[in-house]
């Protein structure tokens, strides 16, 4: 029985034992020579006329096996012939003088070549994956190419990244230790990013990097002993890519803030004394150059994330008030400036809007923090009149109306008392 069961679970597979291939067919199956001959011949005929090249490649796809010989096809288009491991041309085979590596080294020519690849891949969608693999391989072979060949490869890769023909994940090849160690990666990256930013802009580049998690890995273009924001910044700024330096710096500080927030949350969950937490935060502010305004946002998020909130709306307000009363000394330590108070108010507004259970708690939270001397009446009035954001403003302004009127009256009364005193 067990034998039968075993048989059942095995899915039927099509094994082709019965169809013995004739020897000569088998050889032909994985022999790119014929394929290479055809492509090289066509490229020699079309020459530098890239329109004609594109047409020839389009038509050949119907006759030749692009799927099987994708790597051969791309090798020829880039380098003129099949590449041996390391990036040298295989000697024994025919090659063409008309390819990316022999073309003129300027942006215009590379843009025209990028169009050839773009048309080819849009026509034969299944080549997309193979093309990315090819570029990844070529990047690993950089040391086998001449400086001019590298420059052209950098330019065209930047253009293709800009056009969306390639995913930024191909950049992982540049983190290869041998390329990094000798400074090949960084030098290549300069040319690649210049061409990419020229094609699009830094925001588009940043978006593509983020999409595949490359935004936080750019430092890996340098050896471990030079992997600092300062070095990165100086290197790319000196190379004329200040935008990329600024982007990396910003990524670095976002990363640092996330770390800081996590650390704070842990300290609060552990119940560390406030004075220790305050000392820690002030040191971090000095060390990473964070302003009080930015800091109060991080502190607020940490305070609100260090607790499990009740799922019931009617109970959450009470819980929030109790929690914030306890943590008000911490909030007070980082609202010494009017701008920090306003930032905190906006953070509270956003928080209550984003967490629907807190919609009704807004006014109570603000009043509590006013009484605890975290928020001043100036900040509250400024928020009320013109500094609030759109998120749920009608609800929150309505909630605050009475309290704001009370504040204004109190202000007028104290002013008139002062006048009488004069």
UniProtKB/TrEMBL annotation:
Q: Which residues form the W2 domain?
A: 250-417
From start to end residue, where is composition biased (Polar residues)?
Answer: 1-18
Give the region (Disordered) as residue ranges.
1-31
A cellular-component GO term for this protein:
cytoplasm
Gene3D superfamilies, per database record: 1.25.40.180
GO biological process terms on file: regulation of translational initiation
Which PROSITE patterns does the record match to this protein?
A: W2
Family membership: Belongs to the BZW family.
Protein name (database record): Basic leucine zipper and W2 domains 1a
State the organism named in the record: Lepisosteus oculatus (Spotted gar)
Species classification: Eukaryota, Metazoa, Chordata, Craniata, Vertebrata
